[in-house]
Amino acid sequence: MFKELRLHPPALTSHPDIALPMSIMATIPYLDNWLCSEFLQLYSNGIYTKRYNYGSCEEYEPLECIRIPYRLDFGEDIIDFFVQAIKNNYYVLVFCDDSRIQTMKIKYPRLHGILLFGFDQSKHFFYAYAYNGVKLERFKVSFDDMISAYNSDFSVQFHGRGSIFDELSNNHEIRGINMESHMIVLYKLKQSTYENYKINLDKIKWHMLDYLESVDTLSRERPHFGEEVIAWGLDVYEGIKPYYRYQSEQHDAINFADPYCIYEHKKDWLRKLRYIHDHTELKCSEDIFNCLTDLIRHAEIFINLIVKYNVNYLGDTKEIMDRIFHQMDVMREIEKRTLNEYYDLNRTVFESF
Questions:
Q1: First to last CA, the chain
Q2: What is the pLDDT of residues 319-338, one digit of tens each?
Q3: Other Cβ atoms closer than 10 A to 289
Q4: Half-sphere exposure of residue 53, counting CA atoms within 13 Å on the CB side?
Q5: CB 186 within 8 A of CB 65
Q6: How many C-beta neighbours within 10 Å does residue 189 have?
Q7: Torsion of CA 161, 164, 166, 167, to 10 degrees
Q8: Under 8 Å CB-to-CB from 48, ≥6 apart: which residues?
């Protein structure tokens, strides 16, 4: 038997836990009606920087989500479990030791997410989608490699990376959080189109204000849902500086996904505010569009400086780090001023609900 579920290139790509489910959601027609009012807020624990979405980081409104937060001791039968899920139109996000997969470019053992979206039982392989090196790629994974990746000694014995920042345990500015697990997530599309979905202006208003005022959106919306977060919204710029400084002092690289998340967030302001301008009563002036374009330009400089730092982190990086911090300060001020101007321009609309 052969089956392949649909995928499209995702709009958000900074982290696998958003890029992979987003590639499923991207198959939904008119998704922008939903997407334009989501992921406006940022948060950070000082190390990892993420886009906020109502729910856990694996849950998204357009998708049915079944989370299995532990390793399944099925042996070789894990293949049958994955195949049966796909037969029933579930995409399978599985965390496994992807260094054991021959079609991937991973040299060292790690636990990483791979999205299985199809299979060919006669040829004994899955269709997979994941970061293969530095790019999202579609590739094939043999059943044997999938068994090896899921049941490798590294995978079976994995207990998290909570100790990786033990030396920072007394530093209130940086909290080490284990972002990896043996988790399996099954996703299924809830509906086929968002054509009649109404853009959520109320959410746009409150999440934009939360971002501007650095409000803990999670505590406001779901006070029972605990999270180790030290910075929200505009405070993220200052919240991540201690970690960048620490990495520089330790002559260690900065994980590129997190600064790229910040850069991608700036690009998203321009894209979303244009879409909102074209489809709602919320308007955006050319001056604001120009300021957002300038913000993206500074975010590009920021990203290039991160790349330069990661090339040179074994040497003296003080000057580069000073320039990175300067760019972050510039971005924060442009963003604060521009979003405040946007809110003032639409104050009558925002204050009407």
A1: 53
A2: 999 999 999 999 999 999 99
A3: 15
A4: 21
A5: yes
A6: 17
A7: -170
A8: 177, 179, 255, 258
How is residue 208 written in tokens? Answer: 């934009």
Q: Side by side, which strands form the sheet with 231-232?
A: 49-51, 42-44, 231-232
Phi, psi values for residue 269, rounded to 5°: -55, -50
Radius of gyration of the chain (CA): 21
C-alpha–C-alpha distance, residues 187 and 62, integer Å = 10
pLDDT, tens only, 274-288: 999 999 999 999 999
* Count of residues in the chain: 353
- Backbone conformation region of residue 146, classed left if phi is above 0, alpha if psi is from -120 to 50, else beta: alpha
Residue 151 dihedral angles phi and psi, to the nearest 5°: -110, 15
Instruction: Determine contact, residues 212/234, Cβ cutoff 8 Å.
Output: yes
Mean of all residue pLDDT scores within the chain: 90
**What gap in Å lies between CA 214 and CA 204, rounded to an integer?**
15
Query: Measured between alpha carbons, how far is 185 from 6 in angstroms, rounded to an integer?
Result: 17
Answer for the pair 13, 19: CB distance below 8 angstroms, yes or no: yes
pLDDT value, residue 147: 96
Closest CA to 310 of 239, 242, 259: 259
Q: Which region among 102-111, 140-149, 205-214 has the lowest average model confidence (pLDDT)?
A: 102-111
Between CA 269 and CA 272 the distance in angstroms is: 5
- Contact between residue 332 and residue 233 where contact means Cβ atoms under 8 Å apart: no
- 9-33: pLDDT as tens digits: 999 999 888 999 999 999 999 999 9
